[in-house]
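Question (not urgent): is this output format expected?
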Amino acid sequence: MTSFRNVLPSAPAPAPPAPPQHLAGLDGLRGIAVLAVIAYHLFPSVAPGGFLGVDVFFVISGFLITHLLILEHERLGRLRLARFWIRRARRLLPALAATVLVCGAVAAMIGGDTLVGIGRQVLGATTFSSNWIAAFTGQSYFSASTPDLFRNFWSLAVEEQFYLIWPLALLLLLRLRPSGARVAVMAVLALSSATEMALLFRAGRDASRVYYGTDTHSFGLAVGAALALWLAGARAAGRGGQTRPPSAATRWLPAAGLACLAAVVTAVFVLPDDRAVTYRGGILVVSMAAAVVIWASGT
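Got this back:
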């Protein structure tokens, strides 16, 4: 007698649960980046390179977003793009709207210099184009006399542009074989961005254009993404029985992580925002050091 179990269609196997999205090892690096940026704005003579905290954040974002997208692709065989963009919007837009409304209302009550360029600033904040508007209108990031209420929204704009474009680009990149080719592509993109920053920088002139530009200042995101892609390739090689590069590096990785963390912290105190060395390799070196710290943190 045929059992109902053999006749009825079987239900599709549920997808495995999503991996945890919080990587505790990144919290300490985030804290250092936050303190660096605060120190730069409050005590620029003490921490002249505190602006590098933003670059550390770029590396963290590039790594984390790519890591999570790759895990989803491995788990489901696809990327849920609409879900990704909706989640980013839910996390950012309410806080952004509240900040613009409250700060804009306070600026309107105070009046004076706080309202200078407020229209273009609100436009940039609401369209995630603050960095390009500031670059094209000649607004300086480094001038203390420039009364830009939403000046620091430039980095949020760069990250939002990354969130919009990167998932689509990653889908194409994941088609490349072998996995090392994906890392090579990201390395080329990072070097291209850093090279453009180096070439466009002019000693003795305000560096805001190369600092604001997505084209010249996206290499931190690319470095973080390259790390996530390389570790994903190593995981896949391990599942296939091949040698995993990270395992071979476990003996020296903790020491390298501590050395690179020390390098990042040192740069906060010694790398100024007006020197050629900063824009001709300095920021790139700090970004690469931050990537090693992320790798060593156990991610």
